[in-house]
Amino acid sequence: MISPPARTVLWSSMREILPAIESAWRPFNPKVVYPASAAAFFEALPALLTAKRIVVTFLNAHSVTAMRVLRQEYGSRVPFVIYLHGDGTNGAQALTELNGLLTKQDQFISSCSADARALRLCLHGAKVHVIPFPLGAKARKPRVVANPPLVYVGRVSEQKNLHTLIWSLWVLKAVFKRPMRLSIYGREDGYGSPNMNLHTPNLGRRLKALAKRLGVEALIEWRGHCESATLEREVYSKHHVFVSASLHADENFGLAAFRSLCSGNPAALTRWGAHTDLYRKFRGRVRLARVYRGSHGPFVSPLE
What we know:
Strand content: 15-25%
Shape: elongated
Order of helices and strands: HHHEHEHEHEEHEHEHEHEHEEE
Oligomer: single chain
Low-confidence stretches: none
Strand order of the largest sheet: 7-6-5-8-9-10
Distance between the termini: 44 Å
Number of helices: 11
Number of strands: 12
């Protein structure tokens, strides 16, 4: 099993998902290898060359390098089982570097149907299975509460399309005369949106300035980053409507939205990535806003 330590992964959601994937494969007694460490990789090389299969839990430059060394330098034909998540933010660059390395025995695991469709368009004949992350969560009964607050949990990033969410608050207040409060949990990542060549310095400050210009700054509470236990106690267990206008290229599961929905709360999401799977899994509790194609990339209407 080729996998990075969860603590080294940039996205906090992966620190929960990666251990869950490793736990699901534990009955097969895997040897876990972190390929960014050359010493650990070469120490595990004999086991990798004689394995029945090699599970790649996170697709990035390090894991692709390890796969290339195994196939090109050592002639290994041990089948790969490759989890797709991890590289969509960078335009699936690591995935494109697999060209010429894959065999008919290799298989992919996607956490959502949208990623599986995209992969089949890019790699004709690819064997891809849609398997949600094995988090073992149980869904509670739906909640019905009058005028619940709005909650967003995630990174403060161009990829998450928060400016559209702020515009939608203005629409609610100015057009529908229904001001609603929004709590935003998450830290600014400064990562931009590599797929769309966007990078906005001090994005959090700019979003707050936008809210002030629109006259909705008093409706928004910026809560910053919180650990999972705090989110469970202060957010998911309480009544709210989860909202996300995300256009993130690697929105392949929607962990925060999933946690909120499992707690019985409704959600308003974009028709994008794994959100469409959540719409099917939580019937009647998810509203989807359409994503349009424009000359500068995908966009969502604040009105919708």
